[in-house]
Amino acid sequence: MSGRLDGKIALITGVGGGMGIAAARRFAAEGARVVGCDLDAAGAARTEQLVRAEGGEIAVMGGVDLGDAASARAWVDAAVATYGGIDVLYNNASTQRFAPIDELPVEDWDFTMRNELDLVFYTVKAAWPHLKAAGGGSIINVGSIAAIRGVEFMAQNAHSTAKGGVIALTLQLVVEGGPHGIRANVISPGLVETPNTARMLADPPERMRRVVLDRIPLGRHGQADDVVNAAVFLASDESSWISGTNLVVDGGGSVLG
Questions:
Q1: What pLDDT, on the 0 to 100 scale, is given for residue 1?
Q2: Which CATH superfamily is domain 9-248 in?
């Protein structure tokens, strides 16, 4: 690796699986000191062991419920104590529930807001004074193309609303953080292969193939590294004059609607 993140302290949420594992590995390989967390304690421990075996510097905390403000603050404060500061906050963690609007239980709506939007606010709020004290840093929030379009193949009303909120919050962070050297950007992935989607993508239903996969101009679904590549750029000094962007990573699929 090129050492694009040498010396940076990067806090990454949701490192126990999927894109979080890829993020932890890549950030460490690029020279960052990583502090990760996940609600899944076993998954968090596996990622920590993997990154250390690859020569990376990482500390991971398991059993962290970021949807609870006090827990999010405790993790951020512990992360700062581990390496002495924050340069990057990468809000990757996300959990959602889907159902048509007339069938979605209020509890599932609340669950999705808590675990896709609230947790971003809580971690940012906890990290903000540390970023200000350090004279700046990079906040990377994971959105979704679900926030910028409605679709007929998935009942994503709660998910799209939460991710729309992530984008809106990020824009305000840009304005409030600019005078302190804090940058904030969003990465909005399209359909990416993760442990949750791998089985479906291995043998996609005809409707999924016809209305999603066959309409990706670059001809393939995404991989975790496609998203992490964008995150490395936004975390690095290469993007030092970029704040407020919503970087869509979807193979061009959202262009077709």
A1: 61
A2: NAD(P)-binding Rossmann-like Domain (3.40.50.720)
